[in-house]
Amino acid sequence: MGAIGGDEVEQWDKMNGGEVVNGGGGGLGKLEKILVSVRLRPLGDKEIARGDPAEWECINDTTIISRSTFPDRPTAPTAYSFDRVFRSDCDTKEVYKEGAKEVALSVVGGINSSIFAYGQTSSGKTYTMTGITEYTVADIYDYIGKHEERAFVLKFSALEIYNEVVRDLLSAENSPLRLWDDAEKGTYVENLTEVVLRDWNHLKELISVCEAQRKTGETYLNENSSRSHQILKLTIESSAREFLGKDKSTTLVASVNFVDLAGSERASQALSAGARLKEGCHINRSLLTLGTVIRKLSKVRNGHIPYRDSKLTRILQHSLGGNARTAIICTMSPAHSHMEQSRNTLLFASCAKEVVTNAQVNVVMSDKALVKHLQKELARLESELRCPASYFSLEALVKEKDNQIRKMEKEIRELKSQRDLAQSRLQDLLQVVGDNHVPKHSLASRRNFTFDVPQSCEDEQSTAESSEVVDSVPKFRFPGRQDAQREHRSQQAENNVQFTAPSRYSVSSPPFSGMPPTDRRDDASQISNEDSNDLCKEVRCIETNITEGNECLESSAVGSNSLQDSNNAGSSMHANNDSNPSVNSRLHEESPITLEQHLENVRKPFANLVKDIGSSMRNSSCSKVIGRSRSCRSLVSYSLFEDMEKDDCTPPSRSLMTSLGDLKTVKEGDLH
Ligand SMILES: Nc1ncnc2c1ncn2[C@@H]1O[C@H](COP(=O)(O)OP(=O)(O)OP(=O)(O)O)[C@@H](O)[C@H]1O
C-alpha cells in the first residue's frame, strides 16, 4: 500500500475542502488537528441517589464549565473549549454527526480514520462508541449502495488489549497475539483474524461476537465495566468497476478504527481489589502512556514520542499524529464526586486538540499500473532535475544578451553623438558657404569646422558663386586663379554638353596647410596640401590622358611635371604633417617669413598651376575634369584665405590642418 497523488487526492481534497500538503511519507497529505469533542452524560441512578450534584454544564456548543472551583486547585481553569461539547441530553446520533461522521467516513475515500472514546470508568464510552460504530457502518453501507460504479470489499477485525496482552476478539482461542513492525504496514498484529464482510448484518453479528468476547467486570462504579481497550477495525477497499482486472486498475484501501478505551479509575473509588485492581493498574498505566504520547505530540512532533511504551500506543501510532484522521470523544460524568477525574479528562482533551495528523490517500495498484506509475514518476523527477539546469543556462544567456544590448546602446549613443557633431560642423560650413558676407570674426570663430564640398560644386551656379566668393576677398585676390577660372568657364561653356566628370573626381576637400615653402623643391612644392591633393586628382586625369597618347602631352609637359612634383610635395607634406612629428616640428622651427613672401610663395604655384591647367583645358578631353575640380577648389581657397586674413597671414595652425583633415575623413565617411 502506498500514498500517492492523482485523482484520488484531488477527490479527497474536494470532499474535505482542506489544504493538501506534502506529507512526511513522500506523498500528498492533509495536515489537520484531531477533532476533539466532549460528551456529558446524565447523572446516573446511583449518583442521583446519593445526592451527587451535577457540577459541569455546557454553556454552548463548544464550551463546558464547572459551577464551582476545584477544592484542591482553586486557580485551575473552570471553562474548557473544544471543537464540540454535547450536553447530557444529546443523543448519540448527534454526537456521531457532529463529532465523528466526517472523520469516520473518510475511510471510503481511502483515508485512514480513527474514532476514540476516552474517559473515566462509567462515563459512557462504550455507550457512545457502540452507537458511533453502528451509525458509521450504516453510513458506509449507504455510501456503498449509492456508488455502484465502484466495487467495495469490507473486512473486519477486532482485538482487545487486556492487561497489556493483545487478544483476537474474533477468535475462540485465547492466545495472545504478537505485535510486529513493518516498514510499509507499520505496527501490525500477527495472526489477527480478518473477516470479509458479506453485508451489514454480517458485521452486526461480528460486533456481537466481540462484545461477548471482550473482558468486562463489575465494579463499584460500573456494573458492566470494560476491563480492556477494544479496537474494532473496519477496512474498506474500493476500485472503479470499469478498470477491474485491467492495467489501470487501482484500489483505495483504508481502515477506520473504533477505539473504546478502558476507563481510568481510582481504586479508592472503584473499590477494586484482586483481579479488578490488577486490571485497573494496567488500564491506568496504558492510559498514562497514551496521555504522554498525546501531550508530547501536542507540543513537538519531531521529538521522541514513546509509542512503544504501551501496546495501545504502538497499535494506534498512525492514528495519533500519523497517516489518519482522528476524532476523540471524551466522555465525562457531571457528578461532583468525579470532578477531579473529569478535570483530568478535560486536560487530556485539551492536549489532544493540539495534536496534528497527516492523513494521506492510500492506494494499492496493480503491478502493471504500479510500473506505469513509477515510470511516470521517474520521468517527472528526471524532468525536474533537468529543469533547474536549463533554467540557469537560460538565465545566464539572458544576462549575456542584456550586457550585449547595453554595450550596443552605448555604441549607438556614441555614434549618434559623432554624427550630430559632424552634422553641426557641416551646418556651420554650409552657412559659411551660403553667406557671401559673413563677418570675418564669425569665420574666425569657426576655425575648427569640418569642410565638406558638396557634389553640386560642378554646377555652373556653384562655380559662379565660388568665383564670387573668391572675388569678394579684397586683400587676397588671386588674379592668376581668377584668370584661370574665367578661362575655365569659357572653355566649359564650349564643352558643356560634351563632358561629364566621374563623380569620384568631384570630391575635392583637401586640407590646406598654408605653410610656407620649407622644402628644397620647385615652386610646385610650395603649393598647399589642399591644392596638392586637388591637383593630385587632376594630375591623375592628366596622366591618364597622357598615357592614352594624347598630343596634349607635349604642350602640357612642363605643367604636368610641375603638377606631379606639386602633388608629390603636397602629399609628402601632408603625410609628414600628419604622421611625422619630427618633420612637422622641423617645419615649425624654420624662421618665419613675411606676409608678402608667404603670399608670393602661395601665388606662384597657383599661377603656374592655373597656367598649366589653362593649357590643358584648351586641349581636348582632359580639360573637363580640371574645370570641374577648380570650382571646388575655389571654395576651399575662399575659406582658407578668410582664415589667413583674420590671422594676419599667420600660417594656419595645426588645429586648422587637423580640422581640414577631419573634413576629409567625414566626407569620405559620408560617401561610404
Ligand atoms: N449519554 C448517556 N445517556 C444515558 N445513559 C448513559 C449515557 N452514557 C452512559 N450511560 C450509561 O452509563 C453507564 C455506563 O456507561 P458505559 O458502560 O458506557 O461507561 P464506560 O465509560 O464504558 O465505563 P467503563 O470504562 O467502566 O467501561 C451505562 O449504564 C450506560 O447506559
TrEMBL record:
<dbReference type="GO" id="GO:0007018">
    <property type="term" value="P:microtubule-based movement"/>
</dbReference>
<feature type="region of interest" description="Disordered">
    <location>
        <begin position="648"/>
        <end position="672"/>
    </location>
</feature>
<dbReference type="GO" id="GO:0003777">
    <property type="term" value="F:microtubule motor activity"/>
</dbReference>
<feature type="compositionally biased region" description="Polar residues">
    <location>
        <begin position="492"/>
        <end position="511"/>
    </location>
</feature>
<dbReference type="Pfam" id="PF00225">
    <property type="entry name" value="Kinesin"/>
</dbReference>
<keyword id="KW-0505">Motor protein</keyword>
<keyword id="KW-0067">ATP-binding</keyword>
<feature type="compositionally biased region" description="Polar residues">
    <location>
        <begin position="558"/>
        <end position="585"/>
    </location>
</feature>
<comment type="similarity">
    <text>Belongs to the TRAFAC class myosin-kinesin ATPase superfamily. Kinesin family. KIN-7 subfamily.</text>
</comment>
<feature type="coiled-coil region">
    <location>
        <begin position="364"/>
        <end position="432"/>
    </location>
</feature>
<dbReference type="GO" id="GO:0005874">
    <property type="term" value="C:microtubule"/>
</dbReference>
<dbReference type="GO" id="GO:0005524">
    <property type="term" value="F:ATP binding"/>
</dbReference>
<dbReference type="InterPro" id="IPR001752">
    <property type="entry name" value="Kinesin_motor_dom"/>
</dbReference>
<dbReference type="InterPro" id="IPR027640">
    <property type="entry name" value="Kinesin-like_fam"/>
</dbReference>
<keyword id="KW-0175">Coiled coil</keyword>
<keyword id="KW-0547">Nucleotide-binding</keyword>
<feature type="region of interest" description="Disordered">
    <location>
        <begin position="455"/>
        <end position="531"/>
    </location>
</feature>
<dbReference type="GO" id="GO:0008017">
    <property type="term" value="F:microtubule binding"/>
</dbReference>
<feature type="binding site">
    <location>
        <begin position="119"/>
        <end position="126"/>
    </location>
    <ligand>
        <name>ATP</name>
    </ligand>
</feature>
<protein>
    <recommendedName>
        <fullName>Kinesin-like protein</fullName>
    </recommendedName>
</protein>
<feature type="region of interest" description="Disordered">
    <location>
        <begin position="558"/>
        <end position="588"/>
    </location>
</feature>
<dbReference type="InterPro" id="IPR019821">
    <property type="entry name" value="Kinesin_motor_CS"/>
</dbReference>
<keyword id="KW-0493">Microtubule</keyword>
<feature type="domain" description="Kinesin motor">
    <location>
        <begin position="33"/>
        <end position="355"/>
    </location>
</feature>
